[in-house]
Design goal:
Length: 143
């Protein structure tokens, strides 16, 4: 159950990246997220937002909705900060992508795929859902 929940609806445009990162930074502060997670949160939000800007075409709606919340996990497992990013592009579940071949030489590896892999490796929990013609990707971190 979310203790606090706040959202931002913003155009899926590269020029809005700073506003998205500022929103998440403010929400993290309001939700009392430890400073040690700030770099992870910023990197993950940047990667997910820019993937939507660059690849979620065509869109039914040009906005991206971003929601930040703090959740309790059971009685003894602590709490998490979760960021849900919702877009109205074609169906795309990043969790179904194959992991990149990290053992390959950088020059031989295909371009792309490292960002989503990085997100899933940095986060403690990721989930994807397709609901009402939109993609919703949620990423959570233990506090």
């Amino acid at each position: 159950m979310a203790q606090t929940d706040s959202s931002l609806s913003i155009a899926a445009d590269f020029g809005n990246l700073s506003a998205v990162k500022d929103f998440v930074r403010r929400q993290a502060k309001m939700l009392r997220v430890p400073e040690r997670l700030s770099g992870k949160l910023e990197l993950v939000v940047e990667e997910l937002f820019l993937n939507i800007v660059n690849y979620a075409h065509p869109k039914l709606k040009e906005e991206v909705d971003i929601r930040c919340s703090r959740h309790s996990i059971g009685d003894t497992q602590g709490e998490m900060i979760c960021i849900a990013i919702q877009d109205w592009g074609p169906p795309f579940n990043p969790l179904e992508k194959d992991n990149p071949a990290l053992e390959q030489n950088v020059e031989e590896r295909p371009i792309g795929g490292l960002g989503v892999y990085l997100v899933t490796q940095m986060a403690d929990y990721c989930t994807y859902a397709r609901q009402n013609e939109n993609n919703c990707f949620t990423v959570c971190f233990h506090l």
